[in-house]
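User: Some background: our group keeps a shared notebook of sequences we're curious about, and every so often someone picks one and asks for a predicted structure to add to the entry. Today it's my turn. The entry only has the sequence so far, pasted here. Could you supply the structure so I can complete it?
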Amino acid sequence: MDVFEAMRRRRMHRQFTSDPVSEEVLDRLVQAAALAPMGGNELVRRLIVVSDPRVVKTVRDVTPSFLANAVAIIVVATDLDRAEASMGRQGREILSLLDAGAAAENMALAAPAIGVGISFVRCVNDSALQEVLELPDHVRVDILVGVGHPAPTPSPTAPRRDPVVFRDRFGAPYP
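Assistant: Of course. Here's the predicted structure to add to the notebook entry:
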Protein backbone atom coordinates (compact mmCIF):
# COMPACT_ATOMS: atom_id res chain seq x y z
CA MET A 1 0.00 0.00 0.00
CA ASP A 2 1.44 3.37 -0.90
CA VAL A 3 1.66 6.11 1.70
CA PHE A 4 -1.14 8.22 0.18
CA GLU A 5 -3.49 5.24 0.24
CA ALA A 6 -2.51 4.66 3.89
CA MET A 7 -3.32 8.30 4.64
CA ARG A 8 -6.73 7.94 2.98
CA ARG A 9 -7.48 4.74 4.91
CA ARG A 10 -6.16 5.97 8.26
CA ARG A 11 -8.79 6.53 10.93
CA MET A 12 -9.17 6.59 14.68
CA HIS A 13 -11.14 3.53 15.71
CA ARG A 14 -13.32 3.53 18.81
CA GLN A 15 -14.60 -0.03 18.60
CA PHE A 16 -12.50 -3.15 18.28
CA THR A 17 -13.17 -6.88 18.38
CA SER A 18 -11.94 -8.84 21.40
CA ASP A 19 -9.47 -10.79 19.22
CA PRO A 20 -5.89 -10.48 20.45
CA VAL A 21 -3.28 -8.68 18.40
CA SER A 22 -0.31 -10.82 17.42
CA GLU A 23 3.23 -10.11 18.58
CA GLU A 24 4.19 -9.72 14.92
CA VAL A 25 1.65 -6.91 14.47
CA LEU A 26 2.78 -5.17 17.65
CA ASP A 27 6.39 -5.49 16.53
CA ARG A 28 5.59 -3.99 13.12
CA LEU A 29 3.89 -1.03 14.80
CA VAL A 30 6.93 -0.57 17.06
CA GLN A 31 9.13 -0.66 13.97
CA ALA A 32 6.93 1.98 12.32
CA ALA A 33 7.28 4.21 15.39
CA ALA A 34 11.04 3.68 15.37
CA LEU A 35 11.22 5.00 11.79
CA ALA A 36 9.73 8.35 12.84
CA PRO A 37 11.98 11.40 12.84
CA MET A 38 13.66 12.53 16.06
CA GLY A 39 14.55 16.09 17.02
CA GLY A 40 18.30 16.51 17.10
CA ASN A 41 18.64 12.87 16.04
CA GLU A 42 18.44 12.00 19.75
CA LEU A 43 16.63 8.89 20.88
CA VAL A 44 14.55 10.30 23.73
CA ARG A 45 11.40 8.36 22.80
CA ARG A 46 10.43 5.34 24.89
CA LEU A 47 7.77 2.82 23.85
CA ILE A 48 5.92 0.54 26.25
CA VAL A 49 3.90 -2.25 24.65
CA VAL A 50 1.00 -3.22 26.91
CA SER A 51 -0.75 -6.45 25.95
CA ASP A 52 -1.50 -8.17 29.28
CA PRO A 53 -5.32 -7.87 29.48
CA ARG A 54 -5.19 -6.96 33.18
CA VAL A 55 -2.71 -4.14 32.59
CA VAL A 56 -4.65 -2.92 29.52
CA LYS A 57 -7.82 -2.77 31.66
CA THR A 58 -6.03 -0.91 34.44
CA VAL A 59 -4.58 1.62 31.99
CA ARG A 60 -8.06 2.17 30.58
CA ASP A 61 -9.52 2.47 34.08
CA VAL A 62 -7.07 5.23 35.08
CA THR A 63 -7.43 7.04 31.74
CA PRO A 64 -11.00 8.35 31.57
CA SER A 65 -10.42 9.76 28.08
CA PHE A 66 -9.56 6.27 26.76
CA LEU A 67 -12.87 5.55 25.05
CA ALA A 68 -11.82 2.70 22.79
CA ASN A 69 -11.91 -0.96 23.84
CA ALA A 70 -8.48 -1.69 22.38
CA VAL A 71 -6.90 -5.02 23.34
CA ALA A 72 -3.35 -3.64 23.33
CA ILE A 73 -1.74 -0.27 23.92
CA ILE A 74 1.53 1.19 22.75
CA VAL A 75 2.58 3.97 25.07
CA VAL A 76 4.74 6.67 23.51
CA ALA A 77 6.77 8.35 26.23
CA THR A 78 9.77 10.66 26.58
CA ASP A 79 12.88 10.38 28.72
CA LEU A 80 12.78 14.00 29.90
CA ASP A 81 16.28 13.98 31.38
CA ARG A 82 17.81 12.78 28.14
CA ALA A 83 15.70 15.22 26.08
CA GLU A 84 16.84 18.17 28.17
CA ALA A 85 20.47 17.06 28.31
CA SER A 86 20.68 16.71 24.54
CA MET A 87 18.42 19.52 23.33
CA GLY A 88 17.78 21.82 26.28
CA ARG A 89 14.43 23.07 27.47
CA GLN A 90 13.08 23.19 23.91
CA GLY A 91 13.92 19.49 23.49
CA ARG A 92 12.16 18.61 26.74
CA GLU A 93 9.06 20.73 26.23
CA ILE A 94 8.55 20.91 22.47
CA LEU A 95 10.69 18.66 20.28
CA SER A 96 9.92 15.56 22.34
CA LEU A 97 6.19 16.11 21.77
CA LEU A 98 6.77 16.46 18.04
CA ASP A 99 8.75 13.21 18.15
CA ALA A 100 5.92 11.45 19.98
CA GLY A 101 3.37 12.70 17.44
CA ALA A 102 5.54 11.56 14.55
CA ALA A 103 5.86 8.08 16.09
CA ALA A 104 2.10 7.85 16.65
CA GLU A 105 1.34 9.00 13.10
CA ASN A 106 3.75 6.43 11.68
CA MET A 107 1.80 3.76 13.57
CA ALA A 108 -1.47 5.22 12.26
CA LEU A 109 -0.18 4.97 8.69
CA ALA A 110 1.14 1.43 9.20
CA ALA A 111 -2.05 0.14 10.83
CA PRO A 112 -4.25 -0.16 7.71
CA ALA A 113 -1.39 -1.78 5.80
CA ILE A 114 -1.11 -4.56 8.40
CA GLY A 115 -4.83 -4.97 9.02
CA VAL A 116 -5.34 -3.40 12.43
CA GLY A 117 -6.90 -0.25 13.76
CA ILE A 118 -5.58 2.28 16.21
CA SER A 119 -6.82 5.12 18.37
CA PHE A 120 -4.84 7.95 20.00
CA VAL A 121 -5.50 9.37 23.43
CA ARG A 122 -3.69 11.62 25.87
CA CYS A 123 -3.89 10.67 29.53
CA VAL A 124 -5.03 13.35 31.94
CA ASN A 125 -4.22 11.24 35.00
CA ASP A 126 -0.44 11.16 34.68
CA SER A 127 0.36 10.13 38.25
CA ALA A 128 -1.95 7.09 38.18
CA LEU A 129 -0.67 6.02 34.77
CA GLN A 130 2.92 6.48 35.93
CA GLU A 131 2.21 4.15 38.85
CA VAL A 132 0.44 1.52 36.74
CA LEU A 133 3.30 1.40 34.23
CA GLU A 134 5.99 1.72 36.93
CA LEU A 135 7.55 4.65 35.11
CA PRO A 136 10.46 6.53 36.67
CA ASP A 137 9.82 10.20 37.46
CA HIS A 138 11.86 11.40 34.48
CA VAL A 139 9.66 9.60 31.92
CA ARG A 140 6.55 11.41 30.66
CA VAL A 141 3.72 9.66 28.83
CA ASP A 142 2.87 11.62 25.70
CA ILE A 143 0.41 9.49 23.72
CA LEU A 144 -1.42 6.21 24.25
CA VAL A 145 -2.05 4.30 21.03
CA GLY A 146 -4.84 1.77 21.39
CA VAL A 147 -4.42 -1.18 19.03
CA GLY A 148 -6.89 -3.82 17.96
CA HIS A 149 -8.82 -5.41 15.14
CA PRO A 150 -11.52 -2.98 13.98
CA ALA A 151 -15.11 -3.88 14.79
CA PRO A 152 -17.19 -5.15 11.83
CA THR A 153 -18.86 -1.74 11.68
CA PRO A 154 -15.86 0.56 11.94
CA SER A 155 -15.88 4.08 13.25
CA PRO A 156 -16.59 6.63 10.53
CA THR A 157 -13.65 8.39 8.96
CA ALA A 158 -12.98 11.87 10.21
CA PRO A 159 -14.24 14.58 7.89
CA ARG A 160 -11.54 15.74 5.53
CA ARG A 161 -11.21 19.48 5.44
CA ASP A 162 -9.28 21.58 2.98
CA PRO A 163 -6.20 23.08 4.63
CA VAL A 164 -5.81 26.82 5.07
CA VAL A 165 -2.76 27.55 2.93
CA PHE A 166 -0.93 30.77 2.10
CA ARG A 167 1.95 31.51 -0.28
CA ASP A 168 5.16 33.15 0.96
CA ARG A 169 3.48 35.04 3.83
CA PHE A 170 0.41 34.79 6.03
CA GLY A 171 -2.72 35.92 4.22
CA ALA A 172 -1.25 35.78 0.72
CA PRO A 173 -3.36 33.63 -1.63
CA TYR A 174 -2.23 30.15 -2.52
CA PRO A 175 -3.57 29.01 -5.87
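Suggested note for the entry: The first strand starts at residue 45 and ends at 50. Residues 39 and 98 are 8 Å apart (CA to CA).
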